Amino acid sequence: MSLPMDDQGLIMHWPFDEGEGASALENVSQVRDEIQYVFNQAEFTEPTGPQWRQGVTGSGLLFDGYSTSIVHSVNQGAASGGPESLSALSIGVWVAPRSYDWGYESKLTAIVNRHNREREQGYLLGMFRHGCWSFQVGLEEGGWTEIWSPDGHELPKNEWSYVNGVFDGDQGEIKLYLNGSEIARTSVPRGSRLAEATGTDLLIGKNNHSSQWGGVFNLQMFSGILDELKIYNRALSAEEVAASYRHVLDSAHGGVKPQVQYDEIKLDRTPLLQDRHRPQYHVSPPAHWMNEPHAPIYFGGQYHLFYQHNPLGPFFYHIHWGHWVSKDLVHWRDLPVALAPEKDRLAPDGIWSGSATYDADGLPVLFFTAGNDSASPNQSVALARSTYTRDGDPDLVQWIKHPEPLIVQVKGMGAFGDFRDPFVWKDDDGWYALVGSGIEGGGGAALAFASKDMLNWTYKGPFYQADIQKFPYLGPIWELPVLLPLGTDKQGESKHLLLVSPVGKGADVEVFYWIGRLDKEHLSFIPDREEPELIDVGDFHFTGPSGMVDPKTGRNIVFTIAQGDRTSELEYQSGWAHNAGLPLSVYLRDDGRLGIEPIQELESLRGAKRLSIRDKSLAEANVLLRDVQGDMLEIQVEMEPASATKLGLKVRCTPDGEEETLLYYDFNEAKLLVDRTKTTLHPGEKCRGVQGGKLELLDENLKLHIYLDRSMVEAYANGLKSLTTRVYPSRRDALGLEIWGDGELVIKSMEVWDMHSIWWRSASAVFPTS
């Protein structure tokens, strides 16, 4: 088929057919433009170029949403759209968006632009919230003119669309075309001319005047694939636009609209696998930002776990629900985003934390915090159902939101404006929910609700609130309440575990818990002890709890987020922020205390056993440890103090001791501690100082179960407490281990294993398709 037009007036054309490399050819000028991309130069992983993908013809360029862009210097003049050609401008481009921007400061996510809005100069083709899009121009006669896609003509995610913006000053028209058809037009005065944006470069994938976020990140950057970007200094006719669209379909796709394969556009974790600080057997998003993992549920032989996720970059911004699935709670598979903000009245501004349970038919449902900034308060409890019953979706990829919120906060229902993170469970009598909030003028609280049908809910009052005068560190607001059954104690009394995460002024942002009794009649909680306890005594690295009763084993499983403890600058450079902690089994011990242990399934990650010793002195053990190196290890050690009052293990040690991290127990203070004063020499890393907390061993030997996973360090002491921390050594040889004590001690036993990554093996090998 011959070309539909002779490309008369074509002034710029990026075919994006390179398929590799860090530059893109502009065909008309034959100028190669550098592609900005965070991993062109990389500090913590191997440098790698921008990501190229299958385009509509040849290859296309994948834009990551926060770092990928192209700068093209434009000289004034007719060949560049200068004064002799300002009476008309046409832009055509194939776009496959992966994510939509939230619309901060009402600015467009730029596909291509060369504009100055304040001066009313230049042009901008871009997207806005929920896939709507716009072509905007500044006129020499004065005025900034915008034309927007009408409802029903948004750009769908993960699909190809052909978009055109046409400015015809002589005829006094601006038009939008989608997939070859006109969808909108607006009038400007006949004879209008485009105002030149002097001194401004043409940018692809980045707004000329993007908003700043966190002092580091540029917002309004395109996320997805672009291909065949063309700019003309004349107004294309409707026939020419339609012919261009048909030409691609007929010449390369058998006459049908090209499709995007999900594997081509999804976030790719491959560039991050070599990052020397990114954990490899802790579950994490493929890239970018996560906070709490939540809503664990077991269905159809698989565990599902969701997480708070910004798919646009490694920063807290436009929150979606990411999704993993696993057969064993250890090896996970990345699935598409489960819930995203949409153009509706329910949750247009964020899908925040929640939980999962089963409906009356035993099918999974998700309860989430619906973010709607046009409502007051902007948080309510909403529900989504799986499409499983309709299409047999075994991975529960598709979810449909109930159109209205189920629980809306009113005055007198907790601290007004703070109402989030529903934890829902079901028993034979119906459904129950806890929602994180506070008490007006008081402290944090979990609010209780009950329902007979899962859709209509009755407020039952505060489930539990602590005395903020006695415990000011519990803060004014509680998030992420979790209630799990612990069975009966020695006296035959039924016990439950209540977890909360305080936030707000004066709050200690940790996971606190109480063991106590559930008063089901009044839907309230009576703790055994008024003072709360910590599961983890690290510093802000074990937060955001969620939990489930495992239907396979009856265990209580708790999931948390492990905060990254890094600056925004380092998260930008790394391309990721945060990961989940290891899944924990929590249970009621015979002595009435809470027991915590990493789940047994983690043993499947063990590789070679590097060390196994019994009854050695400190000196003897350290001689044997000289040959044990690694940043992905499992360590079990029992130490008996002789004259030592402080004893523990140094990890991530350089041979000269310049960098090291010390995990230890102080018998005099009864504290489990980590000393990070020598953890890193990197000037930008934040991990410093000594952290820890109370642990009563009651004349037991110290038993440490330690997991090293690059920057992650998790230490479990005697099945009673954990200490989660982060380490980012600057030196690559910070791989050693050393037993430490301030006196004599006996190493009763010590075993060390290499640990495997959960990501290296192919998904088909770990999870064969049915």
TrEMBL record:
Pfam families: Glyco_hydro_32C, Glyco_hydro_32N, Laminin_G_3. Keywords: Disulfide bond, Glycosidase, Hydrolase, Signal. Its EC number is 3.2.1.26. It is an enzyme of class 3 (hydrolase). CDD domains: GH32_FFase. Signal peptide: none annotated. It comes from the Bacteria. InterPro entries: ConA-like_dom_sf, GH32_Enzymes, Glyco_hydro_32, Glyco_hydro_32_C, Glyco_hydro_32_N, Glyco_hydro_beta-prop_sf, LamG-like. Residues 87-239 form the LamG-like jellyroll fold domain. Belongs to the glycosyl hydrolase 32 family. This is beta-fructofuranosidase. It comes from Paenibacillus haidiansis. The lineage of its organism: Bacteria, Bacillati, Bacillota, Bacilli, Bacillales.
